[in-house]
Hints:
Layout: H1 8-69, H2 77-108, H3 116-167, H4 177-218, H5 220-263, H6 265-287
Helix pairs in contact: 1-2, 1-3, 2-3, 3-4, 3-5
Amino acid sequence: MVVERDRSKEFYDLFDTFKSQQTVPSTSLRSSVTSSNEVQSFNQYARNVAADIVSVSDVIMRLTKLTQQQSIFDDKSREMSHLTSTIKSSLQKLHDSMDTLEALKKAANPQKDVFARGAKGSQKHNDTVVDTLKMKLASTGQVFRAALQSQTKQVRDSSNRRFQFTSNDEPQTFESALFQDREQQQTLLSTNTNTQYYRQRVQAVKELEAAVAEVGEMFNDFTRLTHEQEETILRIDADVDQALTNVNAGSNELIRYLSNISSNRGLILKIIGLLFVFLMFFGFVVVR
């Protein structure tokens, strides 16, 4: 007699189990796709930041060349001031872009519970990219700061040379009163022009000193990171040198041990022969 039993509930339970197992891969797939898009956004933004750093470096080189070409008879102050303003605004934008890149890096880092080994490698790569860009930007800021300091020194030297050049001129004397009036007018006009020029130079020096201080404050964090990276590199170099020294010492010990073994080869052969004779004698006694 066959006993019938309703197993519909077991069937539905099994169906629900399969359904729940299939939802997990789909969720993981959506997470993987989202992470891939964020990684692409991070990489693209990092490339743009690197290109902007290169562009700013080119402008700094132009400013440096103009500073070297500056002279009393070839005043390039206006163009240099324009380049300085452009570089400052570009560096400020790059400084803000690094904060955005940090946020993109955090979003692009994959989850730890999915592909743990690959996630760790990807996160390390992103950290390396951000640290490298920070060091490049810090180096660019230091170059710009050096260019501003050189420009400040150039402006001061140019002002001093002009002052010496104009103050050494002795006024000519004329008997005619008309010539004397013209001479006084020219002297007064020259004095006013020089006074205005010196005021402009003093203002330019103040602006340059303020720009140097502003750039220094802007890149304090990046400069600290650069020093930390340099210290890390120095420690790595020291560790590598120590490891190389240990390897050489170990190699010398192995060579010395090999030479000792080679010199004691006769003794080793005697010991082996003695063991062989003992084994033969022991085997002969046992067999007998």
